[in-house]
Design goal:
Shape: elongated
Number of helices: 22
Helix content: 40-55%
Radius of gyration: 28 Å
């Protein structure tokens, strides 16, 4: 572990801009976002970034800069980039700002979701309760004001922010800036729990009222992980800034220069920079790179050692489940990624959560927007098509852990691997049957061959993970007129090469599994002759019928 000579205190998890600045805690200056956003002039701006990439802190920063509640607080900004612009200095503390977050809306049912959203809106209203004492507000205004409470109906809740903005404009004589953090959490969580369409319908009404037909709205900034149809389907002209855009690219995450400066300030040796880049570099926003994960870097500054900090903070369960149940095609592409390669994928900025479980394009888009994949290039001949790769070494470690967990019911898989490498057909059959009994259902495998192929390719991914460094595992290489499913080439010459040919038999087929296994075995004969490797070659034909399997060695 490195020993750091602490300078500014590293405060983990603090997302309150005022608190960080008042206490002189470590802060990477992102105030250029204020000027860049203001000068764009967009009425509704949506910025999407992976979790823990500084979205909430930047929203707090915008609130502190523009809000009337922080008028005269130049102490928060005077030594930061934005204060060097006279035009922006004049705007500090001059707008009424409504700032709220949906980050904690994670219900298990639609009524619970509505109750949670309603309580957030009630708390927001109570911040302005003092305003009602002014004589400009009528008894009808006050009655309407107090109708916003935890047990209000969806229609009242959907129009609550618009009405509040109207009263605020009346009081101050100035239109409102709206900051809505984690706007997409309610719909994402609802789809995960089976009531997504109902929640999306409500959010469309709320967005339409708040952002589209609100005459008291000056501008709005929303942050989230993805662009949702519930927003763009109800609001015209949303400026959506995703990870494929260069706009605001340096404002979220740490640039290479910021990382180097932070490590130097904290007293780390030069080799620490190499360690941090080796673990956490890889993010690309538009044309901006390198971008490093700010949570990882901050934790490294605090702890002095590299770990899988970001991937350990949660959120991987959904990703693991989707990949485990994904098609054979996605698993083949995942194998390319695990091998350090890139895949060409069409990315859709508008990701409907309900599509993710069955739409391959939506799944790759989700993995990009959530930070598990990065932009490695763009295919100009196909609009919207990008080359993608695993984001960083940390993410590669996390994906490998996911794959291993798919088969961690017992040690049968490891026993099967060892049997395969020593050439024991009997033990391979015995242990593969055990694996099928314990893990097969987790892949949503059904009766047809394509479903079984999902399971087989997941097992090959596990081989790639377990044998990394000792074997190069190639999935589905084309070899002349013969197509073989898996070729495993040893890194060390004494170890045997391995060829696996895979077939399925439908439950109602009369063909015997023995015959099919021998056909699969014959497919391997012209692939990788013994004299093409320094060691021996082990050849296997595998046949599956539901949870039945048979392996033959040749």
């Amino acid at each position: 572990m490195y020993k750091a000579d602490m300078k500014r205190r590293i405060a983990i998890g603090t997302e309150d801009f005022e608190c960080i600045r008042v206490n002189h805690w470590f802060y990477a200056d992102k105030t250029s976002l204020i000027r860049e956003w203001w000068q764009q002039g967009d009425r509704v701006t949506l910025i999407t970034r992976p979790r823990r990439f500084g979205k909430t802190l930047n929203m707090s920063m915008l609130n502190c800069f523009f809000s009337l509640r922080y008028a005269g607080r130049k102490d928060l900004f005077e030594d930061l980039k934005v204060w060097g612009c006279e035009e922006m200095r004049k705007l500090q503390g001059t707008f009424p700002v409504v700032f709220l977050s949906f980050a904690d809306v994670k219900p298990t049912s639609f009524p619970e979701a509505m109750e949670h959203v309603s309580m957030i809106l009630e708390d927001l209203y109570l911040e302005y309760e003092w305003m009602l004492q002014d004589s400009m507000f009528s008894s009808r205004d006050r009655s309407c004001f107090y109708s916003v409470r935890g047990d209000m109906g969806p229609q009242t809740a959907a129009g609550a922010i618009e009405r509040l903005c109207g009263w605020i404009e009346r009081y101050y004589g100035k239109k409102v800036l709206l900051l809505l953090d984690e706007y997409d959490t309610p719909v994402q969580e609802a789809y995960a729990r089976g009531f997504g369409d109902e929640m999306a319908d409500f959010m469309r009404q709320l967005f339409w009222s708040t952002l589209e037909v609100n005459p008291s709205l000056e501008r709005a900034v929303l942050t989230g992980i993805m662009v949702q149809e519930a927003l763009v389907g109800s609001v015209n002209h949303v400026e959506a800034v995703t990870v494929t855009s260069s706009r605001y690219a340096a404002s979220f995450g740490f640039t290479g220069a910021e990382v180097a400066s932070a490590l130097s300030e904290q007293g780390y040796p030069e080799e620490a920079l190499q360690t941090v880049f080796a673990w956490y570099d890889g993010y690309t926003f538009g044309h901006m790179k390198p971008i490093l994960n700010p949570w990882d870097v901050t934790m490294f500054l605090k702890q002095g050692k590299p770990e899988t900090y970001w991937t350990d903070t949660g959120g991987s369960g959904l990703i693991s489940g989707l990949l485990q149940r994904s098609s054979a095609g996605i698993k083949r592409q995942l194998g390319v990624l695990l091998g350090g390669g890139t895949i060409g994928v069409t990315i859709d900025a508008l990701v409907t959560p309900g599509r993710i479980s069955f739409d391959e394009q939506a799944l790759w888009s989700l993995l990009l927007f959530t930070g598990y994949l990065k932009l490695a290039g763009k295919a100009p001949e196909k609009p919207g098509t990008y080359e993608l790769a695993l984001t960083s070494f940390e993410v590669s470690v996390a994906i490998r852990r996911m794959v291993k967990a798919w088969f961690d019911e017992d040690s049968s898989f490891e026993h099967m691997e060892r049997a395969m490498l020593r050439g024991s057909e009997l033990d391979m059959n015995r242990y593969l049957h055990r694996v099928l009994e314990t893990a097969y259902s987790g892949f949503d495998a059904g009766m047809d061959g394509s479903e079984t192929e999902r399971f087989f390719l997941a097992a090959v991914l596990r081989l790639m993970v377990d044998l990394d460094g000792t074997y190069e595992v190639r999935i589905g290489p084309e070899t002349g007129c013969c197509r073989c499913d898996v070729v495993m080439l040893p890194a060390s010459s004494p170890d045997p090469a391995v060829i696996l040919s895979f077939r399925t038999v439908a439950p109602d087929e009369e063909e015997k599994m023995e015959d099919t296994a021998m056909k699969a075995l014959r497919e391997t004969r012209d692939v990788l002759k013994d004299d093409q490797t320094a060691g021996s070659v082990l050849r296997y034909g595998l046949v599956f019928r539901r949870k039945e399997c048979l392996i033959r060695k040749g």
